[in-house]
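To whoever is on call:

I kicked off a structure prediction for a single chain this morning and the downstream step that reads the tokens threw a length-mismatch warning. I double-checked the sequence; it's 228 residues and nothing unusual in it as far as I can see. Pasting both halves so you can look.
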Amino acid sequence: MRTLTDYLEQYALIALEKQDKLALLVGEHTYDLDLDAGKIRFNDILEFPIQVLGTESDNTLSWLWAWADEQTEEVPEDLLRAARQLKDWGEREGLHEFTRPSMDLDRADGHFLSMIAGEICGASCYFRDAYEGGAAFVLLFDKRIEAQPSFDLSRLSRRFLDLITRYELNHRNALLSYLRIKGLSPTEAGGLITGTLDTGESLSVGFDQDGRLQSFNGDTYDRERSET
């Protein structure tokens, strides 16, 4: 049976590419999360439909799914479809993290869960709405987000290094999954993965026998230094 980490490895980088696409589209921004309208607005110009996933609490250091929140009367029922879909999916996959009402953030935080949730639900990206005492996470759906440019080498490197520094996962599996989802036909030779990005840039990434990053396009990765 697959674990939560297996799904993170599969979906994290493609989800992070979508986060970059949102950032490219909205730039420096203000935003308004309108639950009554079921939309989020950026800069009073761009407006996208949303689904509510859940919330992080700074007080209890826990995640709470929207379908289990006692305050869900404040959220219209049609904005809980994705959260309920994920609960059903979690039951089928045997993933308790998606079926239990809450969990400690040191098990999985909102970003971790949203990266998986967005791919399962076919979202364009997710968004973290921070407020005093915590944050809400929502999924966004709009073709204008998806139409933004894919990762170039610099953006992929930055997001990949941030991912492997933040979460415990197999680095090689995460990169391979991204390249395969994108249809970029990576080549493996020993511990080296090579390929070409959508931008036409060449990629060459080395891993050790445990799947941990060693080099990225000729630059040696110093894990200890990256965590300081």
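Update from on-call: the warning came from a stale cache, not from the record. Cleared it. Sanity check on the structure: The chain has seven helices and twelve strands.
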